[in-house]
Amino acid sequence: MSKWGRDYWNKRYIEKMFSNVKYIGDSYVNTTEGEYHYSNHHPAIISPKIFDHRSIHKKYLEAISSKIQMVLLRESILNTAENVLFTKLLTLNS
Question: What residues have CB less than 8 Å from 51, skipping those under 6 apart?
Fold first, then answer.
């Protein structure tokens, strides 16, 4: 059950859990001297193995998404260039 009393968990909240080390029992503390990392600071909700696997999977999906966006942008640019050339050819043949 979620902290709001629901029988289901919000997707965004689950993604937040898999991007924050506090859910695997670690803690970061910022001080004027720097940042300190404490492993096993408190009981984990998510196992570190699952957390690491999800982090790698998320980076993989982001890389694929980025490549898809680049391909779509390239296709858009090529289509625009083709339309400009086609329009110029039409005006030359008129």
Answer: 18, 21, 23, 24
Q: What is the pLDDT of residues 29-78, one digit of tens each?
A: 988 888 998 988 999 888 888 888 887 888 888 888 888 888 888 888 88
Sequence-distant (≥ 6) Cβ neighbours of residue 46 within 8 angstroms: 17, 18, 23, 24
Radius of gyration over alpha carbons of the chain, in Å?
24
Cβ contact 2:13 at 8 Å:
yes
CA dihedral 20, 12, 4, 37 (to 10 degrees): 0
Q: Could you tell me the two tokens for 18?
A: 């898999």
